[in-house]
Amino acid sequence: MKAFNTFDTELRRSLLVLFTAGLLFWSSMSSLLPTLPLYIDEVGASKQEIGLVMGSFAIGLLLSRPTLGRLADERSRKIVLLIGTIVATIAPFGYLATQSIGLLILVRIFHGISVAAFTTGYSALVADLAPAQTRGEIIGYMSLTTPIGLAIGPALGGYLEATSGYGPLFLLSAELGFVAFLGILQVTNPPAQTQEQTEEGNRNFWQILLSPRVRVPTIVMLLVGLSLGAIHTFVSLFLKSTNLDFNGGLFFTAAAISSFSIRIFSGKASDRFGRGLFITFAICCYVLALLLLWQANSAIVFLLAAIAEGAGGGTLISMMITMMADRSLPQERGKVFAICIAGLDMGIAIAAPLLGIIAELVGYRNMFGYGAAITFLALVIFLTRSSKDLSNSLRFALGLAPDAYALNDLKLRSDEI
User: Fold this and answer.
1) CB neighbour list of residue 297: distance below 8 Å, 6 or more residues apart
2) Which of 22, 150, 313, 329 has its Cα between 20 and 30 A from that of 144?
3) What is the full DSSP assignment across 143-201?
4) Tens digit of pLDDT per residue, the chain (417 long)?
């Protein structure tokens, strides 16, 4: 936490308010993680329809991210954050108002805009504020909002659903989103473009995506998103089908505690040992989590899977954000984040309906086995394609070489395009 002592009072205040708003936002989102699939199941949906409704959340993410990324770069990060919290406030009322599968899909798509807006604005603003030499540490600490929120939200959501029903649950989610909105109003947002516009900073969507510095991380995020979508959508239903005495909310809470624990030191350590080593570790954790779910037959195995999934998520997202901050100019950072994280969104969007069909055919257990194979492919790609050639990729992925695509003095290297 020493890095925060170097900031002035106003900046520390903004970071504290931003952190609090992030905590409330993720509590709002995660309160529905273990409960919304059960709600959709209760209204009579099939496994495939549950996957379709849950996966449609990522459609809103995918459709809105490019526009929100440009808005964050061209206007301000704060505007995008306000959009995210407004949508988080409104969407839960949509679930409360309907039990139609078609309308639930539309509400879920709308709800997806909230995460697209909030994560893009939050990541870009924190990266703008963090000095390059302590970027991993600052992003690591500020990203703790996600695991803490993912610990609080499912516990609150599961408790309210069990004791009071779905109405109070959706109202709580909306209230948390509204208080987060009030917090964002208090954040001081410096101008988004702190550097003179350059040709590099004006690259369009396809120029950024096709650059090796962005393309490979986006593909890795896509493949991991498939597995992440499977876990978040189907683990509660899988637990229910096993008749084990282990609540889905406890799974997500255990994962969040694991995620929180690892973020405390991984961000700072990445400033010293490099981002690649920790991204490799994170993908390995996801592979392990899915293998454990594939073989799970007791509460302790589900708990171990939750811990592994939390360690993977807690490391991967923050390290990818930090690595893409290293690889981007301030005036293109919103677009770069939007594109890279959109890979995760697309994976989640494909996962729920696709793996829902697989679950119908072979069951939840074997579906997680397929997820493990997909995530292992992501690991192979990162180990072999994360840098300019195979040798550099392996060295970077194992923490033995610096990132060849990291920017030096805010100039793109000629060999990265």
Assistant:
1) 242
2) 329
3) TTHHHHHHHHHHHHHHHHHHHT-HHHHHHHHHHHHHHHHHHHTT-----S--S---TGG
4) 555 666 667 777 888 899 999 999 999 998 988 788 888 888 877 777 887 888 788 788 888 988 998 898 888 899 999 999 999 999 999 998 888 888 999 999 999 999 999 998 998 888 887 777 778 888 888 888 887 887 788 888 888 888 888 889 999 999 999 999 999 998 877 654 544 444 455 566 677 878 888 999 999 999 999 888 888 878 888 888 887 877 777 888 888 888 888 888 888 888 888 899 999 999 999 999 999 999 988 889 999 999 999 999 889 988 998 999 888 888 888 888 888 888 887 887 788 778 878 888 888 889 999 999 999 999 999 999 999 899 999 999 999 999 999 875 344 444 444
Phi, psi of 411, deg, nearest 5? -120, 130
- Are the C-beta atoms of 377 and 219 separated by less than 8 Å? no
Q: What is the pTM of this model?
A: 0.77
Structural domains present in the chain: 2-188+204-397 (1.20.1250.20)
At 100, give phi and psi (nearest 5°): -75, 130
What DSSP character marks residue 352?
A: H
Helices 299-326 and 275-295, axial angle in degrees (round to 10): 160
Give the other-Cβ count within 10 Å of 212's Cβ. 17
- Say whether 94 sits in a helix, a strand or coil: helix
| Token pair in block for residue 17 | 């308010």
Please provide the DSSP assignment of 358-405 as one string.
HHHHHHHHHHHHHHHHHHHHHHHHHHHHSSSSHHHHHHHHTTSS--TT
Amino acid letter for position 41:
D
Query: What six digits make up the tokens of 99?
Result: 């039990």
Q: Cα angle vertex 331, ends 344, 70, to 5°? A: 55
Return d(Cα 103, Cα 110) in angstroms, integer: 11
CB 109 within 8 A of CB 54: no
Task: Check if the beta carbon of residue 332 is closer than 8 Å to that of residue 203.
Answer: yes
